[in-house]
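Follow-up to my post from last week.
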Amino acid sequence: MPAPPVGVVGLGQLGGSLAAALVAGGRPVQGWDVDPGARDAAAARGVQITRELSGVVVLAVPLPAMAGALDDLAIAPDATVTDLGSVKRPVLESVGRALGGRYVGGHPMCGTERSGHTAVDPGLFAGARWALCLEPDTELPRWLRVAEVALAAGAEVVPVTAEEHDDAVAAISHVPHLLAAALAAAAAEAGPLALALAAGSFRDGTRVIGSDPAFVRAMVEGNAGPTAGALARVQEQLTRPWAELLADGHAVATRQQGRRPVRVPLERAALLALGRSGGAVTRRLAAFVAGHIPEDIPDDEVPDPA
Amino acid sequence: MPAPPVGVVGLGQLGGSLAAALVAGGRPVQGWDVDPGARDAAAARGVQITRELSGVVVLAVPLPAMAGALDDLAIAPDATVTDLGSVKRPVLESVGRALGGRYVGGHPMCGTERSGHTAVDPGLFAGARWALCLEPDTELPRWLRVAEVALAAGAEVVPVTAEEHDDAVAAISHVPHLLAAALAAAAAEAGPLALALAAGSFRDGTRVIGSDPAFVRAMVEGNAGPTAGALARVQEQLTRPWAELLADGHAVATRQQGRRPVRVPLERAALLALGRSGGAVTRRLAAFVAGHIPEDIPDDEVPDPA
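User reply:
Got it. Predicted complex:
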């Protein structure tokens, strides 16, 4: 069985980079974008521009555009639809509700503060973790088809539920955006001297809000509950004695973790347990999925607790 | 009048890089470090290793070692002593009290999460802002001598008081360290899945606490009052509506500010006003200081408010 075709809706930084990565791997990719400039740039990279998409259809549009992303497109009735949105419960409730078992939510943990088709990079996904949702009604063969696309782009696949995903990214992505904004706004309040002295630690701490604030707003507001909870946990940390807090934060930021291969049965509970343990399905799986669906995943990996 | 000799006490990342930058500019540099490895590395770069230092003596040791940095060294009686410590009031009260008008506090806004003589980089100061303290009793000719050294290393000099400096760095350096630690510790609390999904925004937001936690602790505890105040201002920002906060933070993080040359009389109040406005004394001043002290600084620069 050949790998299914891939259709990418939205050819900005994420969608354009995914299309470029797959084209670079010799795979036929179709795509569409409402912006003619993005369509032309993708066409120049070898993407077939069309509104008729089939196989694995990837919605790579900003969150506010997600619910209407398929309007005016002709999607094959048996297509599997996935997305790259940075929150998963709202997309599951909008796009997922309409598509039922054909929808598999996804979120590659990459991208930069840049956006649009001029920020396309075929290497964007190399080594990145790509969260892929396994809900109770997700059809496993469709999940595997999307996983294969993520692996083909160079990413590793982390099996999650939408709820687990949204809680996790609140802590490691959405709260960092709010902290960065608060840090920058407070520094501006401190005055021009403070901003003139701002160097490495300030630039690192605020880089993430160089992103389009409309995108960031949609992200944190689309995940308001988990983000508020994660922010409260950061504020609780800030009440600890500084010496203790700094030692713990240093240990987390500099931890070195080995990895070891494990054998995980290809079923939902086991895959989700792999994700919860910090593990991921690695690229070596791809050949199996493209050919047939094996009983076990032979070489996914989890962090070594030793 | 030739540029005065420079003696560097502590040849780790900052001191070793300063010595290397000056040597690269053809200037004789003396230096000392309690660690024979650091001495050997500096000697190999052309630093004359000696305990007898004169001219501008730069204390480039960690904050806890600052008060005893001159023990066992022979410092010329007319030497000007400066330091590179990341807080200025405590050093002013310890080193400064003993030295009186011969002490000029300094703090170059550079350095990385690495430390030690293996992290030496002669380009470390290129383009960096270097805060230099002008207290009521600071002797201006000594301040200018230290400024000339900072400029010779490639930095720009920001005139400040120790108090202004400590308030400013609380907002743009010390609080970012605490936020990074709290972010990392809270993410670890969220579990292995969250850490496995951690990508760019988390790495940027926590990079700064890769630094030795003992150094970071000395820094924030040595500036506890201003840091607590700046942290409270960040927490106040975090109570704002997210959309507003993100828009403001984005505007600060992405601001583009032009610069224009201004003429500033060489006297304390005018220099401090330059610093407060976000301005800096730039390298073009160096030739004047090495030769003679001009009445006006002709080409320092302030940000263009337009």
